[in-house]
Design brief:
Largest sheet: 5 strands, antiparallel
Number of helices: 2
Low-confidence stretches: none
Strand order of the largest sheet: 1-2-3-5-4
Radius of gyration: 13 Å
Structural class: alpha+beta
Distance between the termini: 30 Å
Amino acid sequence: MTIFEKIINREIPASIVYEDDLCLAFRDVNPQAPVHVLLIPRKPIASLDNLTDADTELAGHLLQTVPRVAALLGLSGGYRTVVNTGDHGGQSVFHLHIHILGGRSLGWPPG
């Protein structure tokens, strides 16, 4: 069981900013911007590489939820989304998650 599943199950605390039947968003414990939230599906999916055709509706829901969460957080000036996939992509928790970063101007390239 990943740390994210423990957050979903309320076994460990998190600063949850949004939730619905399919996903939840919470503040990152190691923020890389003034606003840094992780949006995760309730369904345990290891990474983008593990999405299946059966997850199409869920994947669409996650993407449509990003701007809702960004609006709740006051990110009217823009924000960045990041999905790290696999070891070389920098993924450290193997439960699909979308980083939503904002609250300042973000440079490019990111690193």
